[in-house]
Amino acid sequence: MELAPATRRLFLRVSATALGGVGVGSAGYATLIEPEHIQLERVEIHLPQLRPEFDGLKIAHLCDFHYGPFTGEREIGRAVDLVNVESPDVVVLTGDFVTSRAFGFSRDRSPDPAPRNALLCADTLARLRAPLGVFAVLGNHDIGVGAAHISAVLQSRKIRVLVNANQALERGRARLWLAGVNDVLYGNPRIDAALHGIPAGEATVLLVHEPDFADQAARHPVHLQLSGHSHGGQIRVPLLGSPYLPPLARKYPYGYYRIADMQLYTNRGIGTLGLPMRLDAPPEVTILTLHPTLPMPAFRAPMPQGPWYSK
Questions:
Q1: What is the Cα–Cα distance from 273 to 275, expressed in whole angstroms?
Q2: How far is CA 12 from CA 16, 46, 72, 269, in A?
Q3: How far apart are CA 309 and CA 188, in angstroms?
Q4: Is 170 part of a structural domain of the chain?
Q5: Among residues of the chain, what percentage have pLDDT more than 70?
Q6: Over the stretch 214-272, which tens digit does the pLDDT of each residue have?
Q7: What's the pLDDT tens digit per position in 91-135?
Q8: Residue 4: pLDDT band with limits 50, 70, 90
Q9: Can you tell me the distance from the alpha carbon of 189 to that of 157, in angstroms, rounded to the nearest whole number?
Q10: Domain extent at residue 139
Q11: Alpha helix (H) residue ranges in the chain
């Protein structure tokens, strides 16, 4: 999730005004309660391309950790514990492991804590358990801090970072492909490279930080895209929607979507940015269970609408 300087000021001002409008009690809830309440979302995904050997495969999806200053080992550790209890087959992490000062609110001139926070975040995520592995892509904040450093830290904890690359998951002779596109806003996204070598007709899950990339991904042989970036709006004011949604998270900000023949799920993330608050956008751990049956009827989560929301 990114906030330009002018937008940061607007987000702070509008959010403070909105929270004031809904009352001190709501502000207290948004600060003290909702950020602490991680919701476990269970989603059934039907992929006709999926081989029967992968029926019931469980994917745990986490994103937007933003380790420091408001989110740390306690919050991320609780998300890790939730995942491990579910015993997923594979875990995917779709970016923003730390907070970059380039996109944040801090004017502090002290040494940037983000490189060390990356180590602490990776140490916590290293506790994830999945027999088919833990895979990641980078987000815009990770690029802002340093893609090479974030990737090296994650991979040193046996978390494979897919930078315009793919990996086959195998059961017998059947394969399911995970592909990862580098951050779309500030990286070098190459979906052609990410999908290179994947045989036609084999089920492919694409990891990409920004959900609105789905419009491009849907033009390729991608069957499911998993994303984050939006924080679900982070603050959603009743009847008004989200004061701010970042670039490339405005069409598909949270939940399940169908784009042509491709399916998309956008996770609300774990951490917060700008303000240590969440309102009507609680942190999320997603468990997706895959089935090789006909797709379910198209459904779109309701879009945040209001005077500050624009496409």
A1: 6
A2: 6, 40, 22, 20
A3: 28
A4: yes
A5: 80
A6: 999 999 999 999 999 999 999 998 888 899 999 999 999 999 999 999 999 999 999 99
A7: 999 999 999 987 654 556 678 999 999 999 999 999 999 999 999
A8: low
A9: 24
A10: 5-291
A11: 5-22, 24-28, 73-86, 114-125, 140-145, 147-156, 191-194, 214-217
Establish if 223 belongs to a structural domain. Answer: yes
In CATH, what number is assigned to the domain containing residue 114? 3.60.21.10
Going by C-alpha positions, the residue among 76, 205, 210, 197 that lies closest to residue 139 is 210
Predicted local confidence at residue 191, as pLDDT: 98
**Tokens coding 256:** 């399940």
Report yes or no on 307 lying in a domain: no
Other C-beta atoms closer than 10 Å to the C-beta of 230 total: 29
What are residue 61's phi and psi, to 5 degrees? -120, 125
Q: What is the pLDDT of residue 73?
A: 96
What total number of domains does the chain contain?
1
Report if residue 213 sits inside a domain.
yes
Q: Are 48 and 292 in contact (CB under 8 A)?
A: yes
Q: Residue 60 class from Cβ within 10 Å (0-12 exposed, 13-18 middle, 19+ buried)?
A: buried
Look at 290 and 32; give whichever has higher pLDDT: 290
The radius of gyration of the chain from alpha carbons, rounded to an integer in Å, stands at 18
